[in-house]
Amino acid sequence: MTNPQAKQVLARHGKSFYWASLFLGATLADRAARLYQFCRFVDDLADGDLPDRADSLEDIRAGLADPKHLAAAQIPELSAFIALASEANIPLRAAAELLDGMLRDQHPTALKTEAELLRYCHAVAGTVGLMMCRVLNCQQRRADAFAIDLGVAMQLTNIARDVLEDAQMSRRYLPADWFDPELSAETIARAANRCHLPVASVIDRLLTLAEDYYDSALLGINLLPWRSRFSIIVALRVYRQIGRQLQGNGLQWWRGRTVVSKSDKVLLSLSSLKNLIPKTVPPHDVRLHSDLRGLAGVE
Question: Is residue 159 part of a domain?
Fold first, then answer.
């Protein structure tokens, strides 16, 4: 059964992902939209202003682990996700780690190290890549590592794009040990001239790190079923373009979000055709996951 509401949520809030989903076909596009709807629901809850949002997130996490708690919670979005997870064999551990990341965002954030940054990116996005692998009927388990890399790369791009917006919510995901001297979220939120260049330099380093994960993800796309391969290539290239535009515009993070235009999405989609040429997928670069050991999908 298709879910038109999920498709509407994707079209309204995830324009880059919606564009990519158009190449999936009706069945897989519907499943991808249903996964996005759940992720969007918990993300909106985490970033909202409800006084009991942390308790609500805890209820969702408990519902993932305990069917009795699921019934008691009476959260339609969670029930819909559990049904999708059963249908697509999604590991609930990945969803639980996603909730852990959302719960972490309920407190002021000031990450200290690159390892801490990468573990956060895995929690809120690498897990989504892992779940999307199942949604797209990928049967090759070695694809998991590459799917996690795509999620991490996209989240690094998100952080680069949203530095100002996050700082205004008392969140600084840029690692403290990348700054000299350290800048607080409050200082970044004021966007004073004196912090333009130091923050821009750190964002550039962030986007350079993202490139390593995008490169890895692009290699692994050949492990996906043919029907979904092109869609994921498009999603990768469109999202990657956000960071490249940000760099091309002089890393002017204080001016707000960078957006990829519709015409650029079309051009990026056309250029993605060259990535459909079959290639042998090399072993995953384990160095990319050295800071992620013990997390869902990481060996």
Answer: yes
* pLDDT for 270 beyond 60: yes
Give the range of the structural domain holding residue 161, as residue numbers without chain letter: 4-289
CA–CA separation, 234 vs 218, rounded Å?
Answer: 10
Decide if 18 is inside a domain: yes
pTM over 0.90: yes
Helix axes 143-161, 114-121, angle to 10 degrees: 110
Peptide bond into 278 cis (omega under 30): no
Place of tokens 């994921």: 232
Q: Which CATH number covers residue 12? A: 1.10.600.10
pLDDT digits (tens, 9 = 90+) for 3-34: 667 666 666 666 677 777 777 888 888 899 99
Q: Where does the chain have alpha helices with state H?
A: 4-13, 15-21, 26-47, 53-65, 67-73, 76-88, 92-104, 114-121, 127-135, 143-161, 163-167, 185-190, 193-220, 226-248, 262-271
Give yes or no for a contact between 212 and 284, defined as CB atoms under 8 angstroms apart: no
Q: What is the pLDDT of residue 24?
A: 82
Number of folded domains that form the chain: 1
pLDDT tens-place string over residues 126-150: 999 999 999 999 989 999 999 999 9
**214 φ, ψ to 5°?**
-65, -45
Phi-psi region of 50 (alpha: psi -120 to 50; beta: other; left: phi over 0): beta
Judge whether 212 lies within some domain: yes
* Bridge partners, 110 (sequence order): 172
Q: Is 294 inside any structural domain? A: no
